[in-house]
Amino acid sequence: AVSHPLVERILSGDVPPAARQAASRGALPIPREDLIELWVCLRNDEDPEVRVASKESLASVSERARNAFAVLLGAAMLFGVLGMLPAVWTGATPYIGVPMPLGLDLVLQGDPLAVFMALVSSVVGLVIVIYSLGYIEHYPNRTEYYMMVLLFLGSMMGLVFSMNLIWMYVFWEITAICSWRLIGFFRKETDVRRAD
Length: 196
Hints:
Blueprint: H1 5-12, H2 17-24, H3 32-42, H4 48-89, E1 95-98, E2 106-109, H5 112-135, H6 142-161, H7 165-183, H8 189-195
Antiparallel strand pairs: 1-2
């Protein structure tokens, strides 16, 4: 097992209550230098207790980064669609094409209906991501949740802009898989019993 004073403090529970409260708010409870040293010390360790302790101490830093990334990606989708509006209003159809073998070219085209649907989806998606910051902050598997929400939104954009039936089906299936995982987000045994 790794011998490090910070590991000993975490495992023994000798963490001040103020540090625990700061960690629950997402503030960094220990100096950055100690955190980096702890990570270097633990990255190849096989002891599960030490691994869990290191994940919990690094979680507060990564949660804020994950939340910011999710909001920025949701906003980028919205601003990307908003950037297409002037071209669509003038009658142009923005187009992106990636040649693929066997005639399965990935073609995304922004006609007025597609841009309208993408605008509605991206606005609702950004509102969901922002609302989720507070709504699911006390639940486990938040990273999986944000990944599925953003993958759902991205595949929805692909679905509405797709000009190829095969790619439209692929994007449709990705939205279905993401929906299945999001519906099953509450998967504790008590939640499953209550849903039956």
